[in-house]
Every structure is written in structure tokens, then in C-alpha cells.
Design brief:
heterodimer, A: alpha/beta, five-stranded mixed sheet, two-stranded antiparallel ribbon, 7 strands, globular, B: mainly alpha, two-stranded parallel sheet, extended
Chain lengths: 156, 102
């Protein structure tokens, strides 16, 4: 049975004001894929708090994002996040930021192209408004400028 | 991609792929590239197979067929490692950044 994380979060953070989850009851907006995924340019983003080389770590309530070159290697990546145990993601970023796997799928022709760069932010942002009104529009601007066809978002 | 089905059902994104793994492993276990590649490939295929907005595809992979205790403990008291003191975090940060200077 899938874990119910909403009640668990309420319990784990019982000393704080209850978090107001994003709840969208309406049918989500729909953008059909314009061509087969094998011809699409796909961008990768993880909320797992990935850092590249000397990029500064995140802080609490941080709604900034990091730009990660597509060719980044395991040795060049680190993880900073307070909201999940990062041991495995530090040992192998592909647990939450499957950059190496996406490069392989590009080489195999499963996707048309992996967009350069990839992106990461630290998902422990307590304000859904900040994400919706500040972080998301910046990312959408990046993706539009890069002429991305599909966006693969991996949480942590 | 998601490992928290109830949160994703509430957010209701246009397309989602659910993997029932502990948080921090949304695209697989560490150092298991075959498993990771299968999961990510299935996510890429979902861009084509999902045609109804709000669909969540559930992947069949099982974290450990002989041990499901993680489902009882994930994201409960004691799940999060203790945060290091700020001075320790600053030192680790400075060491990391120094490795890549110049």
C-alpha cells in the first residue's frame, strides 16, 4: 500500500502550524506532446537539492535554483536538503537526479535530446505561493528560451 | 515523477509516474543503473502513453519483496538525520567549494 505522506507530514511536524498542501480539484491543463518523445528535447529538473562544483548550498525557505551542466559527473555533484535522508543521493545522484540515465536514453534514441543545462532546487520551501509565483515562472522562462518540448520533474 | 501518491493526487499534475520507493529514491536505488534506466525509460514513455490529463501511472517495481517495513517508518519520527551544527555545515561547504576553485 502506498504510504500516506500527508498525515505523516502532519504528525512529523506537529509542533508547527499545519502545512497547507496544494490541492487542485479542477482538470489539469493539458498540452499534447507535439511529436514522438524520440524527437523531443527533454529538460530534467530535480527538487532534491543538487549542487554543481562550487555552487553555494541552499538555505531554509530558499526558492532559488541551480543550473547543472548536462555533462556534469558524479564527482562534480553534491546534495544539500534537510527534508529527506540524502545519503544515497549523495552516493549516486541518479537516485533523485537521473542525469547519467537521461544521457544514456538520449544516446539510445529513446528521447530526441537532453536539454543543456538541467536544473535543481531544494524542495523544502514552505510557501506554495513562492513556488507558484516566483520559482515556477523563472523556470518556465528558462524552458521557453531553450525551446524545450517536454519537462521531467523529479522530486525527492 | 513521484513517490508520494497522496500528495500528487492532491496537486493533480497533467501527467505523473508513481514509484513506490522510500523518499529520496524517486528514480531508483543507488548504484543500480539498470533499474534506474528502466524507471526513467518508463517515465519517458509515459509522455506518449498518458492521454488523459491527471493520469498517474503506477510502476510495478518493488523496493524489497521480502521486507516492506520501510512503509511503516518512512517519514516518521527519527526518519530525518539530525541536522549538523551550522559550523560543521559551513566547514563541509567550504571544503567542497575549495575543491573546485581555479
Amino acid at each position: 500500500m502506498p504510504v500516506e505522506y500527508i498525515p505523516r507530514t502532519r504528525e512529523l511536524y506537529r509542533d508547527f502550524a499545519p502545512y497547507r498542501w496544494a490541492v487542485n480539484a479542477d482538470t489539469p491543463p493539458w498540452m499534447p506532446l507535439s511529436k514522438p518523445i524520440a524527437r523531443c528535447k527533454v529538460a530534467l529538473m530535480s527538487s532534491g537539492g543538487i549542487l554543481y562544483r562550487d555552487q553555494p548550498r541552499f538555505h531554509h525557505e530558499d526558492d532559488s535554483f541551480r543550473i547543472i551542466p548536462k555533462a556534469a559527473t558524479q564527482a562534480e555533484l553534491d546534495v544539500w536538503h534537510f527534508g529527506y535522508p540524502t545519503k544515497d543521493a549523495k552516493a549516486d545522484h541518479n537516485c533523485v537526479f537521473p542525469l547519467a540515465r537521461m544521457r544514456e536514453l538520449e544516446a539510445e534514441g529513446v528521447i530526441g535530446e537532453l536539454a543543456d543545462p538541467a536544473y535543481s532546487f531544494m524542495g523544502g520551501i514552505y510557501s506554495a505561493r513562492k513556488v507558484r509565483d516566483e520559482l515556477a515562472p523563472k523556470i518556465i522562462g528558462e524552458l521557453r528560451r531553450a525551446h524545450v518540448d517536454a519537462f521531467y520533474l523529479v522530486p525527492a | 515523477m513521484t513517490s508520494a501518491l497522496d500528495i500528487t493526487q492532491a496537486v493533480n499534475p497533467p501527467r505523473a509516474v508513481f514509484l513506490n520507493f522510500p523518499l529520496g529514491h524517486q528514480t531508483g536505488k543507488p548504484h543500480q543503473p539498470e533499474l534506474q534506466r528502466r524507471i526513467v525509460r518508463e517515465a519517458m514513455q509515459a509522455f506518449e502513453t498518458i492521454t488523459q490529463p491527471g493520469t498517474i501511472i503506477q510502476l510495478p517495481h518493488v523496493w524489497d519483496p521480502n521486507d516492506r517495513t520501510w512503509e511503516e517508518t518512512d517519514y516518521t519520527d527519527g526518519f530525518l538525520p539530525e541536522r549538523p551544527p551550522k559550523e560543521d555545515a559551513d566547514r563541509v561547504e567550504a571544503e567542497r567549494r575549495a575543491r573546485f576553485v581555479g
